[in-house]
Each structure stands twice: as structure tokens, then as C-alpha cells.
Amino acid sequence: MKPGRPLFGDGGLHKAFIEALVSAVAKGKDIPQEKVTEIIRETIPKGAEVIKRSLLKNAPQMLRERRREEALFRGRLGKVWKRPFDLFQALCVMSHEIGSDYNNLHRKPAARRRDVAFEALIRLHAQGTLIAHEVLTLTRAGLASGAMARWRALHETTAVAHPAEFVYEAGPCGYDAHRHITKLGYACTVIAPALTPVRPGDRVKTDVRDAEKLARLHRAGELTAIRVPTCEEEAARDLVRIREDAVEDLQRARHRLVKFLLRQGRIFREAGAWTQKHEQWLRGQKFEWPNLQQTFVGYLRAYDEVQARLKTLNMQVEDLAQQPQYNDLVRALMCLKGIGTLSAVTLIVETQDFRRFRKARQFMSYVGVVSSEHSSGNRIRRGSITRTGNAHIRRVLVEAAWSSRHAGTSAAVAKRREGCPDEIVQIAKRAQDRLHRKFWRMAGRGKRV
After folding, report:
1. If residue 213 lies in a helix (H) or strand (E), which one and from where to where?
2. Is 209 in the same domain as 249?
3. pLDDT of residue 53
């Protein structure tokens, strides 16, 4: 409408209210609040009739002016954006025709084999084409906010139609699922479960909720992916880990044997447990009761079997260290004090590739030997190591670090360093000296060492 024109004809609603108010003033000097409210209530029905007559009278003229303004706006918009609009419309038409032709061609075969994926993709394509037409219509009408909202809906539709991505937490199922999914041509990510964000107030856990949480966190980039080893790397790692299991089994077998003897009052009182002399004493034990003798023989046989199995596994790990892909790196790691063949192989097969850690701090975080921290404001409070990482590597490194308490180099270490590049030997010596100084500085400050 033109500027200055009353909203509803000649302003009848306004006149009716003013007349009622003037009449009330003429009858008395003061108008109470209740009287004003009554005047308003009496005026509203009259105003409704005034609004109705005004709309019927002025609606054609209002609509003609509005349509003329919209036509002028579309004309100006078309001069500037005609080519982009035409290209967008051509793309929408082409997408519609391609989808229609593809549906007509493959509909019957897909229906016979009950292809659910075909049905879902066709429906998504149709929905995307419809939303694209809506975006074009809203843009041509100058409704930028509405067009942007429908554009987001179009983006969500294309995200649904995007090739599926799989994510799951590393666990006892291993990496067979990852290899199977990637062989099918899909992206698959295995994440570290210990680094998955957890809300403290979330006390409900179901498989469906866990799957939805993983999907949301993966889309937000909040999950930490792990490196999936190759089949060869995983086989070598399993060999080293079964040897560690055998070491634990040997420790259990020893405990069961000596605790059984302790219950029977049989105690080896000489120094040096599990020495050759100790084993001769063990094998010389005899019991009066047949059942006790059978129990003792069973514990001793279990100890002998585990010891023989561990000896075989040690030889297999030694053979693994001689393979070309491990030999050079094993010899380099053995230059470090406290690192033998078994420890070096453990570090290699558990780390898989040292080059993926650009800094030492990253490797320390992976192993879990960085200090925990609970600081706030000006207060800084650090605690013990986090222990959230590869426990196998952490055990080997801690055991190796204890050997640096003493200065100097043993004959065995010097022999291992023979034939190695001088640069590697110098790095090993500097590491040994640094650990030795660090140990005694911590001991001097009263740390538990």
C-alpha cells in the first residue's frame, strides 16, 4: 500500500473508540479504569465490522500493488541471477529425468530380488530432487532464509545417501571385521575404547545407545582411531603375547607348587629359589599318603610343561628377531641398556611403526607413562602416570629403565653394541646417562625409587 494510507479504510475503528471516549468524558470529569475497559469491550465488536468492510473494499487494490512490487522484484532479481537460476533448474530437470529413467529400467529386476538398497536410494534421490526444486522456487521468490533451511535439508539427504562408514571399538573380536568391511569397499574405523568421551551423568547403557553415541562422536570427530595392523604384524604380535602368557602361567605354576609344599610344612631354607639346587630339592620330595603324592606330581608336571612350552616360545621369538624385516631394528634397540632380544621384539611388534609418532611425548602418551593431572585455576596438581595405553610396551620400558640405576656398561651390552652404527651407539649411551642422572636426582628429592 502507498505510504500515508490508513490501515483499514478511513480509520473507522479509531473514530469509534474516540467518540465513545469523548462521550464518557462529557458525562463526568474522571474516567475510572473499569469504565475504560468497558468502552474498549463495547468498541471491539464495532471495530470487527469496520475491519471486515475495509478488507472487502481495499483487498483488490492491496493485492494489485503487492503483485506489482513482487513482479518488479523478480524482474530485478532475474536480471542479475538469470544464468545461475537457469543452470540450477537445468540441473534439477536433468536429475529428475535420470532418476526416472533409472527407476523405470531397474524397477522390475529390483522388485524380483527384493533389493531394499535400490528402493532406499531411489526414494532418497526423489526426495533430494524435490528439495532442490523447493530451493530454486524459494530463491527466485527472494526468500533466502527459507531457501537456506531447505538447502540444509538437501545436505542431510545427501549425507544419508553417502556411502556407509563403519566404526567400532577395539575389543576381543580383533580386526577381522575391519578387514572384511574394507574388502567390501567401505570405510571402517577402529577406535580406542579407553579414549571414548563419556558423560558422567549417563547411567543407561544399551547396545542401541552405544551405537548411536559412536555414530554421533564419529561424525563430530571426537573419537581416537587406532592403527590396524596387517595380518603379518598381528601374527608376530600374537606370538610375542603368547610367550608373555606362558611367563604368567609359569609364575602361577611355581606359586601353586611352593604353596602346596608350604601347606605340608616343606620349606626350602637355602638361598636362591628356583635355582638348580632348588629344583633338585623339589624333585626329591616324597609323601606318605598316595593322594598327596599324586597332587605333588600333578603340580610338578604342570610346572615342567609350562617351562618346556616357554623354552620353545623363546626360541621361536629368537627366530622371529632374525627375520629381515626385524633384524636391523632389533640390533639397534639392543644397544640400549636393559633391552635384550625378547624386549626388542616386544617393542617392535607392539609399536608396529615408530615413525607414526612424530615426538617422544606422543609415544609416551601411547604407552601411558605421562603423568596424570587435576589442575584448576592457579593450583597445579599432577599425580602418577596415567597407565592408559599399551601395557606390554610399558612393562618392557619400566623393566629396562631399572637397569640404568647403576652407572657403567656391562660386557653383555658392549658385545651387543659391536657392529652397530656409531650414531646409534652414541644415542644409546646418552639415553643411559640421562636415565642414570634422572634416577639419582629423584632419589635425592626423596621420591620413592
Report:
1. helix 207-220
2. no
3. 78
